[in-house]
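Much of our argument rests on the idea that a fold can be written as discrete symbols. In the encoding step, the backbone of a single protein was reduced to a row of integers, each denoting a local shape. We regard such an encoding as a compact summary of how the chain folds. The record that follows shows the chain in one-letter code together with its fold in token form:
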Amino acid sequence: DHRDLHSFPTRRSSDLDGANAVHTQRVEFLPGKRAATVSNSVIRGERDVYLLGASGGQQMDVSITALENNAVFDVISPSGYILSLEAVSETVFLPHTGDYQVIVGGTRGNATYELTIGIQ
């Protein structure tokens, strides 16, 4: 199922600053696992932020599915670089060691989603 990302409205970084609320949660892998899946929902205008510690040189595979195809994510490096913007599936090469942010938001209305993050 390939979605046309261009159909999503453009979201500027100022929109994140104006979010009503931001919910932050650290993602930890179970012993022996290299991926985790989180099921959640985000209310219109709010953002869910997932923190994940990783080493520079690794790669992160991130994908999101939503009941109404209305959720996207951004990936931000520990130094504040935007590595992915408004994506639904992305493999990102990690330039630095530290906490990466995966920021989930809805493109319209409330979004119920399943986010999968893996590190290689």
About this structure: The longest helix spans residues 13-17. The CA atoms of residues 31 and 118 lie 13 Å apart. The longest strand covers residues 98-106.
